[in-house]
């Protein structure tokens, strides 16, 4: 979900790395079915040994969440598609758009093609750089505004997956009181909150839902401040909540710490965080809203190698397996049938999940 650390360059030349564990899919550990791309311009094929550039969001590889999901897709592509060289660059907290432009320009001028930008903050910079390098294929995750003949927009129905974990929170809560911690108050993160609230209220119409955003734009530090995440969650647990969902990138680790200290429960995001979070807090993560950035990244790179990259938007929704909930740890086993019932109602259209707060 979200934006990265210092602008250090983490250039790597890696060969044949095995795929990092794919996130669990709706009660199983099987990978999601890939979404079908939208129509648009096709890209030039990348021969085995092609050079792939990836510009991370705040936090970079190792954030245990959004960026690590992207890294998993890149690792799978390196293993299965024979990519000989990749360069992975990180964004800096509070950096200018000019810095993001230069990061993308560095990759393009260095012969990397295709290039993937992770996170909506690359929107303006990517649109500008893509116009400068029309023969390079670009993809951006979580943004539909940067458009062009050589830009693929990889989007997700975060509100649908969040509905499922909101229902899980309400079904599990013993106090009829849950919470949501968002990293930065932007429309993307508000989709997570809207879906979570809708799911919780579908189970218990009178449930109390606390909400807190760690920062407001243009300050994107809320995605990389575990101390703020911990403080926000502590306030919710102290006020009586017993389950807190975080959509806060690297700040989510603080939410998990607060849940453990309060003998409460937390809900992870993007990756299956009962697997990726620090071992000492994994037990408090009852489920995670899975956002299959790994699937989208791999799909794009595979399409590039087969000359089938499409420009424009591809939406990875619940029906396509782009979002889901995890079952690691068995804490939602008793309510899995109810969650799957909600899931099928969303897929069939019987339930329409709001993507904005009412």
Offer a few descriptive terms:
Rossmann fold; 358 residues; disordered N terminus; alpha/beta; globular; 6-stranded mixed sheet
Fold blueprint:
Blueprint: E1 9-12, E2 51-55, H1 66-81, E3 85-89, H2 97-109, E4 115-118, H3 123-132, E5 138-141, E6 151-156, H4 158-172, E7 177-184, H5 187-203, E8 208-215, H6 226-238, E9 243-247, H7 252-261, E10 265-270, H8 273-276, E11 285-291, H9 293-305, E12 312-316, E13 323-325, H10 336-348
Parallel strand pairs: 2-3, 2-4, 4-5, 5-6, 6-12, 7-8, 7-9, 9-10, 10-11
Antiparallel strand pairs: 1-3, 11-13
Give the gist of this structure.
This protein is α/β, with parallel strands linked by helices. It is 35% helix and 20% strand.
